[in-house]
Amino acid sequence: MVEAKVDQAGPGQAEQDQFKSLYIWDRVFGLLSLCIWFAGIALVGYCTIALPIQYSSGQTTSISYLIEIVGAFDLHIWVSYSAAAAFGFLWNKERKLRKMAVRREHARVEKLEKEKDPNRTSSYLEE
């Protein structure tokens, strides 16, 4: 039996070093990109949250006016009343849908019972 030699020459040492160098540079730029991204988020957060609070501390601002208006209208009471009315409306709507479904299914069950046994009386389901 003769075995054929297959030349499986892999990458040489110079090519391996080149791939390692390329991989290292890729990881360095990936890390640098991630650091720049987080620094940008931190800068935006600082400019939009911390600086306005620092500059407006102790001064009358539009937010303080808004808080006074909301407090004067007792908005917390109106929100709770609106939520209660909305849930009452949704409960009533669901109740009507449930009754329609029971009525529809009752008619279907009654029809199937009559098809199977014409002398059978229905189970007379209640809503």
Protein model, in words:
The chain has 127 residues and is mainly α. It folds into two domains: 14-59; 62-127, no CATH class. 76% of the residues lie in helices and 0% in strands. The chain contains three helices and no strands. It has helices at residues 13-56, 62-72, 75-116. The radius of gyration is 37 Å and the shape is flat. The N and C termini lie far apart (88 Å). The mean pLDDT is 82.
For the secondary structure, the number of strands is 0
Helix content bin = over 70%
Largest sheet: none
Our count of domains comes out at: 2
Question: Ranges with pLDDT <50 over ≥5 residues?
Answer: none
Mean pLDDT: 82
Round the Cα radius of gyration to an integer and report it. Answer: 37 Å
H/E element sequence:
HHH
Anisotropy-based shape: flat
Look at the helices and sheets and give the structural class: mainly alpha
Number of helical elements: 3
**For the terminal residues, how far apart are their CA atoms?**
88 Å
Strand residue content = under 5%
